[in-house]
Amino acid sequence: MDSPSPFLIVAIDGGAASGKSSTARALAARFPFLHVDTGAHYRAITAEMLRQGIPPEEAAVGRALADLALGTRVQDGAALLEIAGRVPGEEIRSPAVNAAVSHFAALRPVRAALLQYQRGQAEVARSHGFRGLVMEGRDIGSVIFPDAGLRVFLHADPEERARRRAREGQQDSIAERDRLDSSRQHAPLTCPAGAIDINSTHLSLDDVVARVAALVAARLSPP
Ligand code: CDP
Questions:
Q1: Which of 37, 101, 163, 168 to mutate to test the pocket of ligand 1 (most atoms within 8 A of CB)?
Q2: Which residues contact 85 (CB under 8 A, 6 or more apart)?
Q3: Measured in angstroms, how far is the CA atom of residue 13 from the centroid of ligand 1?
Q4: What CATH number should be reported for the domain holding residue 66?
Q5: Is 103 in the pocket of ligand 1 (CB under 6 A)?
Q6: What is the layout of strands, in order, in the sheet containing 34-37?
Q7: Whose CA is nearest to atom 9 of ligand 1?
Q8: DSSP 50-101
């Protein structure tokens, strides 16, 4: 008798506008796996701190986080972070959040709160009957799921990434976010040892998805 296929965790990390979200979404739909965009978590918390007028300082943010009830809504194959029962909307992609998110994401209480929350998404995926989880971010393969069945790191030249963000019509200083994200003390952006490094500068989205999908398929049904 065939043994049931294993539950697979796929970690996709990379810098700003490196193609993580599009790749993760396409992969999740193909298999189907639960899709989790952890950048949206940091953005949602940042939007909430800005709304409450809280500065990016550990003590103040730690106190505010203790009062935030975080939940999860599974919708259309994705797990969305709820804050006090509400999934934040497009405000998480505003220029104000783009400018502030890396400052909040560098804080220990923010990372500690999201570490447990994000690890818990594997159980959310299992309990909803998904065969796996695709989680994208900056520290998924290094900190959140270092034992993930597949860890991918996406690179692209800064000029190409700036073009992609401009095509999305967004005002976003991606080079500055990358600088802050790579140089912070806690869970910096880095390609962890053992992760599969893909440079997408000259690849189409379909090419990147095909490459990663082949790696996923090989892990789901090893020879
Ligand atoms: O817009 P883009 O896809 O480039 O970024 P994002 O994935 O939405 O992440 C926004 C910001 O959240 C990043 O610049 C990081 O400061 C932070 N982040 C993080 O620190 N760790 C993660 N795992 C994901 C995002």
A1: 101
A2: 69, 71
A3: 9
A4: 3.40.50.300
A5: no
A6: 70-75, 78-83, 34-37, 132-137, 8-14, 150-155, 196-199
A7: 39
A8: HHHT--S-HHHHHHHHHT--EEEEEETTEEEEEETTB---GGGGSHHHHHHH
pLDDT digits (tens, 9 = 90+) for 186-206: 999 989 999 999 999 999 999
Mean per-residue pLDDT for 128-144?
Answer: 97
Tell whether the model's pLDDT for residue 2 goes beyond 60: no
138 located within any domain: yes
Longest CA pairwise span in the chain (Å): 59
Q: Is the shortest distance between the CB of 39 and ligand 1 below 6 Å?
A: yes
Mean pLDDT over residues 174-179, rounded? 89
Amino acid at 19: G
Query: What is the pLDDT, as a whole number, of residue 106?
Result: 97
Residue 194 lies in a domain: yes
Per-residue confidence (pLDDT) for residue 199, from 0 to 100: 94
Total domains in the fold of the chain: 1
Instruction: Return mean pLDDT, the chain.
Output: 94
For residues 46 and 49, give the distance between their C-alpha atoms in angstroms, rounded to a whole number.
Answer: 5
For the segment 25-46, what is each residue's pLDDT rounded down to a tens digit?
A: 999 999 999 999 999 999 999 9
Domain that holds residue 98: 8-220
Mutate to test the pocket of ligand 1, among 42, 50, 168, 171 (most ligand atoms within 8 A of CB): 42
Mean pLDDT of 132-148: 97
Which tokens belong to 210?
């095909």
